[in-house]
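Let's practice the habit of predicting before peeking. Look at the sequence and jot down your guess about where helices and strands might fall. Then scroll down.
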Amino acid sequence: MALHKPYTDVPGTVIFDMEQARKGYWLNQFCMSLMKAEQRERFKASPRAVLDEWPMSEAQKQAVLAADLNACIAQGGNIYFLAKLGATLGKSFQQMAGSMTGMTEHEYRDMMIAGGRSVQGNRFVGEDGSAQPHRQPQGSGSGTLL
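Done guessing? Here is the structure:
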């Protein structure tokens, strides 16, 4: 039986839920292995050979090889684990976040200093709750909360 996921209508957002955790288990375990200096050196010396030691999908391996964090997230990667990949590749979290938004590190930093990204275009489908029953007002049906 499929789970009801009312949060899947947020444009451009992958929610790390149980399904994503299962999908990305080995990808995230690989990233955790990068906490060990020996593993980081092995990976930098021969990325594909090290990835082939892990039971990840080809899509996951290609996302890691391309250092495509958005693809890694789509394949079940969790940003907290992926941060270890970024650090191994010499990237700061700010550089990683910038790459995920199509911005340079400096553009991303300046946007965050200015107050963050605009919410324009980042709403859920059916704004005001029409597509999300759990967000509709509760009560007498008059639209007011009791």
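How did you do? The chain has a mean pLDDT of 82.
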